[in-house]
TrEMBL record, chain A:
GO terms for cellular component: plasma membrane. Required for the export of heme to the periplasm for the biogenesis of c-type cytochromes. The chain crosses the membrane at residues 5-26, 46-65, 77-97, 109-127, 139-163, 183-202. Signal peptide: none annotated. The lineage of its organism: Bacteria, Pseudomonadati, Thermodesulfobacteriota, Desulfovibrionia, Desulfovibrionales. It comes from Oceanidesulfovibrio indonesiensis. This is Heme exporter protein C. GO terms for molecular function: heme binding; heme transmembrane transporter activity.
UniProtKB/TrEMBL annotation, chain B:
It comes from the Bacteria. It is a multi-pass membrane protein. This is Heme ABC transporter permease CcmB. One of its GO terms (molecular function) is heme transmembrane transporter activity. It comes from Oceanidesulfovibrio indonesiensis. Keywords: Membrane, Transmembrane, Transmembrane helix. It is found in: Membrane.
């Protein structure tokens, strides 16, 4: 059995276990009710989306330094995962916001940063999909991967500044999580981490295979 | 590096201004945008200063996209990019020259956009000298950040069909922080008051400009050399 299969198996088991905890072990929140359980999906999506964008950043630097296409493919795979997870985080967050604050969207640093980040990386994926000579596409993507990641702290800071001037629609509520909720959350984070790694590895394998097939087609044509 | 930067900026400005199309196209688009937005208000109504400032910056941003495209297509049209790459001038000076040229063109077009914003959207800056100073300094500092990113990403979109839309798609989300600073600082100026937290916004815009200038100097040569 190869590592991809093992990782996918472990991820499947972990996600199943985490869902058991979410629905059977974690208590139902008093004010929000069952909708609060969306939190166990929302937070891992957001965390692993951020991790994906960090991988894009590191892989982009590595590509520019080493000029090895493995790093380019890793950046591409991580960006795809990041965009998907950020979209899920935004969608689940929006549903939660509607129930808890009565608005689908509000001007909040975290929401704004995530949305801007999503737009930037969606643009990044668009650039990757353009028909360019592979070397140029990899360089262009790597530069954008670095520039995009540097922008995120600035967006966060600017959104905080803006918010301090304009009254916020909601105020951040304090209070910690119940121990059962905390445990469930950590298990969900771990399970999503395994799922993230399995998907990343699977996508990388797929990209490598596509590359090999393309190389063989070109070789046969000549 | 200063001399080649000036030479490239002068060449780009000469070519753009003598042909006229680049600047005129950007100016017209910006003015049309301001005018179209003015149709959203009832006759006699004032557009809120924040909305007016946002429209002003949107017009500026769209113009910047057109200008960046025009400046990078100068080399593309005559296939002169290899010449610039092979020349003894450091490639970072190409970025600096393009940024300088687009900055000057942007300021020139904003000299038309600001009066258009005031006339069509009904805002009139009548504050103390301090609000004028903060407003003008804000516009210039934000312009610096915008052209730093514009000159870097212009190289990214070169050689692609539909460059304008591609560039706007990547540029717009990236410049959100500096754009917010611009809107906030210009709102204060249009309201005739010094905006709240002007120092922080100016600091953010300065930081953005400095960061992307450093990134531009460092990464532009890599990007420019990676031609098709």
């Amino acid at each position: 059995m190869n590592i991809r299969f093992l990782l996918a198996l472990a991820a499947g088991v972990a996600v199943f276990g985490s869902q058991l905890l979410v629905w059977l072990y974690a208590p139902v929140e008093m004010t929000l009710g069952p909708i609060q359980k969306i939190f166990y999906l929302h937070l891992p999506c957001a965390w692993w989306a951020l991790m994906s964008f960090f991988v894009v950043f590191v892989a982009s630097i590595a590509y520019l330094l080493k000029r090895n296409f493995f790093w380019d493919r890793l950046a591409g795979a991580a960006a795809e995962l990041g965009v998907l997870l950020a979209l899920l985080a935004l969608a689940t967050g929006s549903i939660w916001g509607r129930v808890s604050w009565n608005v689908w969207w509000t001007w909040d640093p975290r929401l704004t940063t995530t949305l801007v980040m999503w737009f930037i990386y969606a643009g990044y994926l668009l650039i990757r999909s353009l028909s360019m000579q592979p070397g140029r596409r990899a360089v262009v993507s790597a530069v954008l991967g670095i520039v995009a990641f540097l922008d995120v702290p600035l967006v966060f800071y600017s959104a905080r500044l803006w918010r301090s001037i304009h009254p916020a629609v909601f105020s951040a509520s304090g209070g910690g999580l119940e121990p059962e909720m905390k445990l469930t959350l950590f298990v969900c984070l771990g399970a999503f981490g395994l799922l993230w790694a399995a998907l990343l590895l699977g996508r990388l394998w797929q990209m490598n295979a596509a590359e090999r097939i393309e190389a063989r087609i070109i070789w046969k044509e000549h | 590096m200063l001399k080649p930067t000036m030479l490239i900026a002068a060449k780009d400005l000469r070519l753009t201004l003598t042909r006229g199309a680049g600047l005129v196209q950007a100016l017209l688009l910006g003015l049309v945008l301001v005018f179209v937005f003015s149709l959203s208000r009832q006759a006699g109504d004032l557009v809120p200063a924040q909305t007016a400032a946002t429209i002003f910056w949107l017009a500026s941003l769209f113009s910047l996209v057109l200008m960046s495209n025009a400046l990078f297509s100068l080399e593309e049209e005559s296939n002169a990019r290899p010449g610039l790459i092979l020349s003894p001038a450091p490639l970072a000076s190409v970025w600096a020259g393009k940024a300088l040229a687009s900055g000057l063109l942007l300021v020139a077009s904003q000299l038309a956009f600001m009066p258009a914003t005031i006339i069509f959207l009904g805002n009139e800056p009548s504050g103390p000298a301090e609000s004028w100073l903060v407003g003008i300094a804000g516009i210039l500092v934000v312009d610096w950040g915008l052209v730093a990113v514009g000159a870097l990403l212009g190289a990214l979109a070169q050689g692609q069909a539909g460059r304008e839309s591609l560039l706007s798609l990547v540029l717009f989300p990236l410049v959100v922080p500096v754009l917010l600073a611009g809107i906030r600082l210009t709102t204060g100026f249009l309201e005739g008051a010094s905006p709240l937290g002007a120092g922080s916004w100016l600091g953010l815009a300065l930081g953005f400009g400095a960061l992307y200038s450093a990134v531009g100097l460092l990464l532009f040569p890599v990007l420019y050399r990676a031609g098709d």
